[in-house]
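Re: export button greyed out
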Amino acid sequence: MLRARGSGRRPVMLAIAGDSAAGKTTLTRGLVQCLGADRMTAVCVDDYHRYDRAERSGKPFTALHPDCNHIDIMEQHLQLLSMGEPILKPVYDHSTGELVRPELVEPRDFVIVEGLLPLHTRMARACFDITVYLDPPEPLRHSWKVRRDCAKRGYTPEQVMAELDRREPESAAYIRPQRKHADIVVRFAPVAGRLDPPGTPLSAELLLRPTIDHPDLADVLDSGPAGTGADRTETAMHLRLHRDTDGRPVDALHVHGYVSPEESQVVKKAILEHLGPRAGTALSDPGVLGQLGDAGTSDPLAITQLLLLYHLLDADHRQAA
Amino acid sequence: MLRARGSGRRPVMLAIAGDSAAGKTTLTRGLVQCLGADRMTAVCVDDYHRYDRAERSGKPFTALHPDCNHIDIMEQHLQLLSMGEPILKPVYDHSTGELVRPELVEPRDFVIVEGLLPLHTRMARACFDITVYLDPPEPLRHSWKVRRDCAKRGYTPEQVMAELDRREPESAAYIRPQRKHADIVVRFAPVAGRLDPPGTPLSAELLLRPTIDHPDLADVLDSGPAGTGADRTETAMHLRLHRDTDGRPVDALHVHGYVSPEESQVVKKAILEHLGPRAGTALSDPGVLGQLGDAGTSDPLAITQLLLLYHLLDADHRQAA
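Workaround output, generated via the alternate export path:
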């Protein structure tokens, strides 16, 4: 009954789920810049609060709790966007803690939905072509949240740490369980046991689940079985067959922070080649990939973003076919 | 793809369209009271403003203009309600002229949608089981608007008259054309050429289009052809075959303001009898019908409301069958 877009094409939908300060905005920014804002709609689904800050203060749960959010309306809006329909999205003002005037969101060719709970329900998950969960080690995420909330939202470190403690039971109950529903789990972290020079970017570990078709990178990557030699575990990038924490098989792509520009270029080129000629016209500027919030750059981030762009363009291509 | 209500039943949808101060709220109030607020959801669709008052002041059109409203979102929300889905409805604060926090609206068994433009587009009209247009004579509506806006919104009569002048071209272009899409056109007006005592309620003229099945009232009403005798035109209630202003055939039910309680009771009873036994359990208190905003009562209004209740219950019955 609801109409599709005039073009008859549905947008490609990408979810980026993760806890507060897990890096969602940093990951999203490069994707929007690279595909171009005229083709990309970025939506944050953390504004579906049922209560404003004053109302919430008397409730026994934090803003993370599904009962604290209009999850049914979030699902409905994700469905509408996935059908190419506009939505009037609620808006929460973080500075005042008030729910304010909603905003019109019209889906372009690609829709990136980032937030705390986009993969919480089956109905919401069904709206996405590609699902990502950001899974940094908790101590690292805590330090990111302290830095951001103190710099941009005027809190003290003690306030932020207290809030993290208060949220932990609901993070465990509602945020982290989304990890198992992601096609790709992204973990940025320092490599254990290495003493890289200051300024070395974090390494990326990407779990690539067989729920979507990933580009075949075995030719350009060290992809032997784990533990066949000391040299193998030392390579800056490698692909390993792996069992996830729940025992399910998964490919694990490691991109270490100390990867050389030449090495990372080989992988980037391989991903672009898998896309074929459409990559060249679709990506307005691959040079914007890998930019960190504090103006540094990271090859592990750039490769992560390029892999997501591969999936966005591949899904778009398959829909058009 | 969007889910229906748990019960599997869709709500019955009634539209009440009409210009500002045409009597929509007065008509709606009795319906909600009579069926019970627990079974009825009343929605005003005049809050889908694209611009707030400050933004609008620089635009070449008034708030009536479709371009000034999120008509596509209004259509979408009407479709969702008609499927039994909740919506997060925008809210416009008339006192401040600002768009504020949206509100959750969950459809109950019956949904009454009143406003300026609910019948503006084909897609919106398709959402309704019954459509009504309120069509008072313009001088009467102007006096109602002056009275209300001065008493409740703090304007002077001169300000209200100036606003009516400013809106007239858009009323003519967008509001009044909805009249032709209504199943029932309701006109409350004094009877021309009569000198009824002060306090006599306005008469009601109801055009009953053959687009829905009306209860057969020919047995209890004077329903002879027009002009067969002076006595006929003098009866307090009558049903006439009529040509509408566009030439289309229509039944015209007149209920004059001076109708006696005994006469109106006969018609009310006939409508209830057409509903059969379900009328008794469905109507919590038919005594609330006919109440005017200023605390008077009107039998023509009561009969109009009872006819709409007939259609609501009849549509509900047919959906359940």
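The CA atoms of residues 120 and 178 of chain B lie 6 Å apart. The button fix ships in the next patch.
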